[in-house]
Design brief:
Helix content: 10-25%
Number of domains: 2
Strand order of the largest sheet: 7-6-9-12-11
CATH class of the largest domain: Alpha Beta
Radius of gyration: 21 Å
Strand content: 35-45%
Order of helices and strands: EHEEHEEEEEEEEEE
Shape: elongated
Structural class: mainly beta
CATH topology of the largest domain: Ubiquitin-like (UB roll)
Length: 171
Amino acid sequence: MKKALVCGAGGFIGSHLVKRLKKSGYWVRGADRKKPEFSETAADDFLLLDLREQDNCEKALSISDGAGFDEVYDNIGEDQFLLTVQKEGSGSGFVFSDPLGISCGTDCTEVVFNGTLVTLSATPLSGSEFIGWSGCPLVNGSDQCLISVTESATVFAEFQPDDLIFSNGFE
């Protein structure tokens, strides 16, 4: 029997997707921060979790047989958008967001509610320097990008290696 995880299974579309998968013979786990409002869930297992939190995503994906899910479905609501940070250049660094969610080294995309003001902060690793932002509507200082999310967007952060300086002062 195939296994499916439906993220957002408490919403209108997600709850109908669960029903459709059940009719097709799937074992279904639903996950959402709310239960379906208009009917009981048809999911074999339903977890009340806020999937914006990484630990909760890991809980939703954890399954006792160790084989994992055959299919995972995600339904982003009409009042939510994807904010993505893409690192460029040959240097190294991290980008963090406030509110929390993006920790770009590993997690470079976050689902954000419409109208959320997000501050992205760039931190170069030793031996690298942060060059700047592109696709950022407002740069605050040299290392912060401010964006009011009203549509899905990608912001680019460029990191380059530091100039090599020898101990005698020559470059």
